Amino acid sequence: MKGPIARGTIRTTFVLGLRLLVQAGTLLLVARLLGPRNFGAFAGIAALAVMLGTLSTFGMHLILLGEMSRDPARREHVMSYAVPVTLACGTALLAIYLAICLVGLREAAVPLHVLLVIGVTETLLQPLFGLLVSEHIALGRVARSQLLTVLPLAMRLSIAVSILLLALADPLTFYAYGYLAASLLALVFTTAAMTSPWPSFKSWRLPDRAELREAFGYAALNVTATTPAELDKTLAIKLLPLADSGVYAAGARAIGAATLPISAMMLSALPRLFREGQSQPGRTAHLLRWIFAVASVYGFLLAAGLWLAAPIFAWLFGTKFHGIEYMMHWLCLAVPGMTLRMTAGSVLMALGKPWMRVEFEVTGLLVLLIASVALTSHFGMIGMPLALASSEWSMTAIGCLLLYVTVRSNRVIPAPLA
Fold first, then answer.
1. Helix (H) or strand (E) holding 97
2. How far is it, in rounded angstroms, from Cα 250 to Cα 248?
3. Could you list the residue range(s) of the whole structural domain that residue 151 is in?
4. In terms of Cα–Cα distance, which of 201, 62, 225 is closest to 135?
5. pLDDT tens-digit profile of 163-201?
6. Does residue 157 fall inside a structural domain?
7. Domains: count for the chain
């Protein structure tokens, strides 16, 4: 953790701290504007859009990250097929998203035009924006890349503030259109600031068989990496009363935002892991010792801090979100597992074992699905945080075991921390 990665982590954590403030402000304002019922519905359908949107690039942003980490000149080669694939997949996924919402999530009672603008944002605009962010990460500009991701979030915050000040009658509709406008403006701004342009239409092509095979693994990886943080909000719509799902979604979003320093650490480490992960096993093992030590200590300290801060959340969200303090206490059970799961998954991906990550995250999603149905039927609202904790810890156990087997098979002997 010493040297460039530590410095990169500090810089990126600072930027992600800004992102945390923006996300927290948006979460609080939108939750207060919509109330628990509408917020639960919005959180659930937005989470579904995010999950499907992770497939839009079909893993091309991770290929771009890996290729440019090794040789920046590979940008044009990858972008020539990454852009058309993203547009084609995103359009198909938008249709699937609308069908699922209209048929399977009727409980949310969200108007079609709201579903459409959220779907377009997450299946088309955000994936294109993600390609540009990956480019910056690959070049070692991790803090800058995360500053870019703050841009649409800051715009959403300003939109929420405007809705509050103007006391608009239909906050859900106005916020949904602002949600789309924020991502569109961020994409336009980032495109204008690019040093290299988007590939011309004439250079677009389909990936060949080898490129498609590589992308397929990363696509599956991207879906399973994102879904554990989103699926629970969509399930909550089906399994809980809408008001209770809103209380759960608010608490779950809060603990998810608090894990951002782990994201900073892994984003800073990824370029080096891509470069050295398989060619320099000794140095990699030493780095992994530090990474997992930090992730473990931070996870348990964060859980303790959130437990003590639970009364503050009750005050921040207001009386409409009755029970959120109690909910935060139960959600703390998942926090250390969450930080370790994120770490294990990122490391397996960087070490060229994407399918191992897919395996343990799919297992965790199955645990979440089964446990949420079983536990909510017995414990009501508290069943959701219990199911989330079961899922996170099962993924942590399996992921760390797979990583240990990988390290041993490569005959890597971990170096001491000192």
1. helix 75-104
2. 5
3. 4-409
4. 62
5. 989 888 899 999 999 999 999 998 998 888 777 788 888
6. yes
7. 1
